[in-house]
Amino acid sequence: MFTRGLKRKCVGHEEDMEGALAGLKTVSSYSLQRQSLLDMSLVKLQLCHMLVEPNLCRSVLIANTVRQIQEEMTQDGTWRSVTPQEAGRAPLDRLVSTEILCRSAWEQEGARPAPGLGDGHVQGPVSDLCPVTSAQAPRHPQSGIWELDSPREDRGGFHKSLDQIFETLETKNPGCMEELFSDVDSPYYDLDTVLTGMVGGARPGPCEGLEGLAPATPGPSSSCKSDLGELDHVVEILVET
Amino acid sequence: EHGGRGGGGEAGSDSHPFPSCCPLPADIISTVEFNHTGELLATGDKGGRVVIFQREPESKNAPHSQGEYDVYSTFQSHEPEFDYLKSLEIEEKINKIKWLPQQNAAHSLLSTNDKTIKLWKITERDKRPEGYNLKDEEGKLKDLSTVTSLQVPVLKPMDLMVEVSPRRIFANGHTYHINSISVNSDCETYMSADDLRINLWHLAITDRSFNIVDIKPANMEDLTEVITASEFHPHHCNLFVYSSSKGSLRLCDMRAAALCDKHSKLFEEPEDPSNRSFFSEIISSVSDVKFSHSGRYMLTRDYLTVKVWDLNMEARPIETYQVHDYLRSKLCSLYENDCIFDKFECAWNGSDSVIMTGAYNNFFRMFDRNTKRDVTLEASRESSKPRAVLKPRRVCVGGKRRRDDISVDSLDFTKKILHTAWHPAENIIAIAATNNLYIFQDKVNSEMH
C-alpha cells in the first residue's frame, strides 16, 4: 500500500546491521510496489484502446502516472533496458507492454493505421526503449501515445496483440463480426473488474485493503446497440480495406 | 418504465422489475438540473432519455402534497450513433442538461451527449379548437353540401399535453467528448467544452461555432492536461472558467482575444509536499466547477475535497472541505478499481452559504460555510421513508465507534452519488443514486453536526 509521501528510507541512516537490512527491505518493497503500480498502469492503458473510445482524461492521468514512475526510476538508475535472456518476471513482456504505451492506437483523430503495419518484431520495442537511459538524445518514453496518424519510421515494432486485433478484423468472416462487436459493447467495467479480481474474488492484487468492495455491477449490457444493418455496413468497409 | 424514478419525497419506484443491486445500465441517471425557478427538474440518463419533473403547486386541498415533484414529460433526447470512420460507437448517454432562462410560455433546455448538443422546446397544450367549418371532429373534410352556416371555432379545454420538440441540433463541433455546456447570461450564446477545446455557439445558429479555447498540443505526444469542466460567469457575459486535470482553474475574458488560450487569471493551489504521492495529480484533477450565485466565488470538486475560491485570489482557495479524507490511505486500491477517476459534481445552495457534493455508499455531504459544520446523509430506500427526517451518518476511521457508524472497509464503492442539484431558491435537493432519483425537502432548518 502506498503511504503518504512515498519517501524511501535512506539506508545510510540505519545504524546497526539489522537496521540496515530493514532499510534495504523497505527500499526493495517500495521498488516492488512502484513496479506493480507501473505494471497496473500499463495494463490499464493497454485495455483502454481495445474497447470503445477511451476516456481521454483517464488515459492522460494514467499516462502521467506512468511518466512519473519512469522518471523516478530513471533517476534511481533502476530503469534500464532488459535483454531478452533475463529470466524472472518476463521483463520483455513488460517492455513490450510499454511499447503499447508508445505505439498504441489511441484513435483520437484520423483513421486507423493500415493493418499489417507492424512486423511484430520483438527487437523493435526493446531497442526503442534503450535510448531512455542512454546519454544521447533522450527520447520521451511516451512517444506516439496519443495518435497514430503521424507516421514514424521506427514504428516497425507494433505490438503483436495489436496486430492480432487488426488481423482478426480482416480475416474473420462477417458471421463473427457480431461477437467482436459484442465484446466491444460490453461495459468497460467487466474487463477491469476481472483484472482487479473484484468479480469472483480471490485474485490478490498488488494493493491490499478495501475488503468491503462490493463487486461492480456489470448487469446485462444494454444490448448490442448497433443494429444488424450497421454491422453489415461496417463489414463492407473493413472488407474493402 | 424508468426503473426507480419517483416523484415527491419518495425514493424510487417499486415497479422496477430488477433487484436494486443490478440496475439496467440505460436507467443510470447521468445528470440532474433544476431550471431557473426550480419549478422544473430535468434528469438525463445513460439511455439517452430526459425525464422532466414539475413541482406541484402547494394546495390547501391536499396539504400533504406540499410542492412535490411529479413526472411532467419524458422524451428520447439522443440515440446511439456509430462513427464509421473510427469504427466506434457514440454513446447516447446524456452528459449534461442546461435550462435556458424562460422567455415565453415555453421552456427550453440544452441536452448533450459526447458529440451532439440539442435544443429542446417544451410546450403545454391545454386547449384545443373545436367547431371547424370545413373539418369534422376527427379532422376529415366535411361534405361541403352539408355546411349551411358559418361558425367560429372555439377553444375548449383539454387534458394537459406536454409537447417536446427538437428545435436545434448542434452537431460536428467536437472531436473529443463533450463534458460541459453552459448558457451565457446574454441568453443568446452558450459554450460547449470537450477534453481539449471549448466552442462558443449562438443558440439560433447550428452550422457554425467559434473555437474559444484550444489546448490541443501541436504534437499529441505532448498531451499531459485536459479540460474537465467549464462554466460561464452568471452575470458577466464575457467571463468563463474552465478546470483542468492538473487541478488548475483558468478564468478567461472573451473581450481580450478571439482565442482565449491565455487566461486572465490562473487559480492553482501549490502542492503540499508532505502529501505527495504518485496519485497526487490524479486526486487534484478537478471534476466540477460552479460559480456561486453571487458570481464572487467558485466551487471546485476534486477527488477528496471541495474548495471555495475567491475570484480575487488566485494563489489558493479560501476554503477547503474534506469530503472523505479516510480514502487517502486507500488511493492505490481506488486506482486499481478505477474509482479514483470518478467525477463527482458539486452544488451551491441558493444563498451560497451551504455547499453539497456526493460520495460513496450513497452518501452525500453538505458543508455550511458560516458555521463550519458539516453533515453526511444517505440516499437509500432503506434509510428514508417519505417525510421522514434523514439521519446523519458517520464513517468511522478507527478509534471510538458509535453504534450506527459504518467502517471505511464496509463502504460500497459501486454506490456513488456523482450528480446532485440544489433548488435555486429553496432548500430542496435532488440526488441521483445510480438509477434512482431522490428529492429531499427541508421544512425546518436541519441541524448540522
From TrEMBL, chain A:
Keywords: Cell cycle, Cell division. Residues 30-77 form the SERTA domain. Transmembrane segments: none annotated. It comes from the Eukaryota. GO terms for cellular component: cytosol; nucleoplasm; plasma membrane. GO terms for biological process: cell division. Pfam families: SERTA. InterPro entries: E2F-SERTA_domain_protein, SERTA_dom. The keyword Cell cycle applies. PANTHER family: CELL DIVISION CYCLE ASSOCIATED PROTEIN 4/SERTA DOMAIN-CONTAINING PROTEIN 2, CELL DIVISION CYCLE-ASSOCIATED PROTEIN 4. This is Cell division cycle associated 4. It comes from Callithrix jacchus.
UniProtKB/TrEMBL annotation, chain B:
GO terms for cellular component: protein phosphatase type 2A complex. One of its GO terms (molecular function) is protein phosphatase regulator activity. Keywords: Repeat, WD repeat. Gene3D superfamilies: YVTN repeat-like/Quinoprotein amine dehydrogenase. Signal peptide: none annotated. SMART domains: WD40. Belongs to the phosphatase 2A regulatory subunit B family. This is Serine/threonine-protein phosphatase 2A 55 kDa regulatory subunit B. The gene is PPP2R2C.
